[in-house]
Design goal:
The chain is α+β, with helices and mostly antiparallel strands and about 600 residues long. The protein contains 16 helices and 33 strands. The strands form 8 sheets. It has a 6-stranded mixed beta sheet, sandwiched between helices. α13 links the parallel β22 and β23. The longest helix has 20 residues. Bound molecules: guanosine-5'-triphosphate. Belongs to the TRAFAC class translation factor GTPase superfamily. Classic translation factor GTPase family. IF-2 subfamily.
């Protein structure tokens, strides 16, 4: 049968060989043959891209028009731009951050109670994950889970909820490690910071010292010529809280936060749980539009019709506008904090979106998503995916932190800016991994190690952690990766970790550590490193590995063993011995 051969065809963006054959009126095997000549190995049901299809069709003098097919998700996101006239001011969304015990929770509690009008209006305070207060007739939304960890965990899921960060610093304690972390987390998210210098009711409060310390971290307060707003407050007595809230409104005004309330709602899940009586309950924050009871919504892979909505005072409400937190009842299952939710009018689209998300989640479970890693940095630079190379630098001493950060940032080129989003002294922690995941950063560790939980988090979040003992190596690696030369011929593989439970001196053999293998295994021929409080104290070879009196080749998780390290005796209780080997790694094909 000779098919009619058209002069012009219209194809979908991704077309299979079979579909193309049908459209062109050319037998499939001829197309496959021609594709092979063009260097493309394709089977009958394989999709080929539009460019290849065009080249192929041109061989038979057929011209091609390509139509783009949208996924349901794209159709959902693809909605009309808002016009300025429809936009109204929306309340700012505020997160409270700061060091442990500096008063984050106390501040959130007192702010909640400053809202006299609302308290008088009745309703029992409900903890739904966020609440609103009214100041000078304007509303402010506070997220109820304080801390930069929660903030960055949401960001790592792609949710950008917070407009302003309040950094709480206790006036009697000053800037502490987590204060610095919070500053860096807020900066990485480009969220403006307002400092609340707390506990000024205390006799030993020294607010000026706090201001001085803040300048060391790039926050210079206004009265000293800088741009940082700092308000001395007391969460305990309520002093100056009104002033703090006024500042929040001021910063919000500068940000010009607006949203169109007259459209279908779209926003973020900030908390979700399974309630015994009520089923899945999600607290959502509307970003734009208005959510109504009866709306069909999707949130992550769950969906449903909004059966009821409850506000932060436990009152049932029928509508929720921009920045208004509400509990939503009626979802099919419990979404994740950080999932986006959207109202979908069109039932068919609604079903498609859910199906696509389920498929995507399954796929993601199987396949790793493309986070930046040194191994494929060059490829990502070329593809234009990476413009800033974000790094987190952790080292054993401040001097090294500064040396590495300085040297790495100097590697910036016209194409790629090397930017250190966070640095610090001490072990690599889970919060570092979260920040790396949220900011697409690589973690560079110098003489420090991640603990087990951190390594697991890094694996789950696909964060690349690079550990070095020589500064030069770190710089060379990043430099090589930026120019596409990185050839990891050998990659370190950790075999396992053991904890020192006791030590004893053995004549001639030196100090022997009685250990318990926490995970993996310790092998006689492996290299080992000794870690104390997350810091690498020593690296070397094993001198002996024994199970009871016998020499052992390897000792597995859950067993005890005696370990001696070559030319090293400073073993102490609670030290961690990490065994590792070097493995040949083939270079990834780009
Ligand atoms: N004197 C005084 N004490 C305060 C003030 N604010 C908080 N505190 C006290 O400081 C302690 C810690 O306050 P929290 O609000 O629990 O601090 P936090 O930052 O939320 O602490 P974590 O949740 O553990 O990180 C509590 O004993 C509070 O009573 C204040 O303004 N003045």
């Amino acid at each position: 049968m000779i098919a009619e051969r058209p002069k012009h065809i219209v194809i979908d963006e991704n077309v299979t060989v079979a579909e193309l054959s049908q459209a062109m009126g050319i037998p499939v095997n001829e197309l496959i043959k021609k594709l092979m000549h063009l260097g493309v190995m394709a089977t009958i049901n394989q999709e080929i891209d539009a460019d290849t299809a065009m080249v192929l069709a041109a061989e038979w003098d057929i011209s091609v028009d390509v139509t783009k097919s949208f996924t349901a998700e794209e159709l959902l996101a693809e909605d009309a731009e808002d016009i300025e006239e429809d936009m109204i001011i929306r309340p700012p969304v505020v997160t409270v951050m700061g060091h442990v015990d500096h008063g984050k929770t106390s501040l959130l509690d007192s702010i909640r109670h400053t809202d006299v009008i609302a308290s008088e209006a009745g309703g029992i305070t409900q903890h739904i994950g966020a609440y609103q207060v009214e100041v000078q007739g304007k509303k402010i939304t506070f997220l109820d889970t304080p801390g930069h960890e929660a903030f960055t965990a949401m960001r790592a899921r792609g949710a950008k909820v917070t407009d302003i960060a309040i950094l709480v610093v206790a006036a009697d304690d000053g800037v502490m490690p987590q204060t610095i972390e919070a500053i860096n987390h807020a900066k990485a998210a480009e969220v403006p910071i307002i400092v609340a210098i707390n506990k000024i009711d205390k006799p030993d409060a020294t607010p000026d010292r706090v201001k001085q310390e803040l300048t060391e971290h790039g926050l210079v307060v206004e009265e000293w010529g800088g741009e940082t707003i700092a308000v001395p407050v007391s969460a305990k007595t309520g002093q100056n809280l009104d002033q703090l809230l006024e500042m929040v409104l001021l910063v919000a005004e500068v940000q010009d936060l607006k949203a169109n309330p007259n459209r279908t709602a779209h926003g973020t899940v900030i908390e979700a749980k399974l309630d015994k009586g009520r089923g899945p309950v999600a607290t959502v924050l509307v970003a734009r539009g208005t959510l109504n009871v009866g709306d069909a919504i999707t949130a992550g892979t769950s969906s449903g019709k909004v059966r009821a909505m409850i506000d932060d005072r436990g009152r049932r409400v029928k509508k929720a506008g921009p920045s208004m937190p509400v509990e939503v009842l009626g979802l099919s299952d419990v979404p994740h904090a950080g999932d986006t939710f959207a109202v979908v009018d069109d039932e068919k689209l609604f079903k498609q979106v859910i199906a696509e998300r389920m498929a995507k989640r399954r796929e993601e479970d199987h396949r790793r998503t493309s986070k930046v890693s040194l191994d494929d940095l060059f490829k990502q630079i070329q593809e234009g995916q990476v413009k800033d190379l974000n790094l987190i630098v952790k080292a054993d001493v401040q001097g090294s932190v500064e040396a590495i950060r300085g040297a790495l940032e100097k590697l910036s080129t016209d194409e790629v800016r090397v930017k250190c989003v966070h640095d610090g002294v001490g072990a690599i922690k889970e919060t570092d991994v979260m920040l790396a995941a949220a900011s697409n950063a690589i973690i560079i560790g110098f003489n420090v190690r991640p603990d087990t939980n951190t390594r697991k988090a890094a694996e789950a979040q696909q964060v690349d952690i690079r550990l070095y003992r020589v500064i030069y190596d770190a710089i060379e690696d990043v430099k090589a990766a930026m120019s596409g030369l990185l050839e990891p011929e050998q990659r370190e593989v950790v075999l396992g970790r053991a904890e020192v439970r006791a030590t004893f001196k053995v004549p001639k053999a030196g100090t022997i550590a009685g250990c318990y293998v926490l995970e993996g295994k310790i092998a006689r021929n492996a290299e080992v490193r000794l870690i104390r409080d997350g810091i690498v104290i020593h690296e070397g070879k094993l001198d002996s590995l024994k199970r009871f009196k016998d020499d052992a080749k390897e000792v597995n998780e859950g067993y005890e063993c005696g370990v001696g390290i070559e030319k090293f005796n400073d073993l102490r209780e609670n030290d961690i011995i990490e065994a590792f080997i070097f493995e040949e790694v083939k270079r990834k094909i780009q």
